[in-house]
Amino acid sequence: MTRRLVSALAIAVAVALPTAVSAAEFGTAAEAKAMIDKAAVTLKDGEAAALAKFNDAAGGFRDRDLYVFCFDSKGGAFTAHPNKALVGSDVRNLKEKDGSPLGEKLFAAQQEGTVTTVQYKFPRPGGSDPVPKETYLIKVGGQACGVGYYK
């Protein structure tokens, strides 16, 4: 009987372990929310310094697939993003893979001092198939910033 119990436990651990490891590969909703809250406080302390931190890989605002991105709340130009090619481009030009206006959704959702959410489908890093993703977005002064996580 003990032998069966040990075998059953070994099988259960073998099945559960890959799920636990892969879940840690990506950020969670709670982690994304905590990061956007931290970003809002950092923006309130000084916009230029905050944007420098958000754009710096070692600035404390990147964790696995979680990162802060920002755009000018009036003009729409990206001011912070890990993909440096996007900085300076208009957020409203972003599209989902199916052509849906992702950037326009983000631009329209910004609200001063209030975290809003935008849901869409986007490929995971290294992937090509769109999967559900949600972004927490907040406007602080002249910046609208977001952190998205994959559901």
Automatic annotation (TrEMBL):
Residues 21-104 form the Single Cache domain. Pfam families: sCache_2 (PF17200). Its main location: membrane. It is found in: Cell membrane. Transmembrane segments: none annotated. Residues 1-23 form the signal peptide. It is a multi-pass membrane protein. Keywords: Cell membrane, Membrane, Signal, Transmembrane, Transmembrane helix. SMART domains: Cache_2. The keyword Membrane applies. It comes from the Bacteria. Gene3D superfamilies: PAS domain (3.30.450.20). One of its GO terms (cellular component) is plasma membrane. This is Single Cache domain-containing protein. It comes from Rhodoplanes serenus.
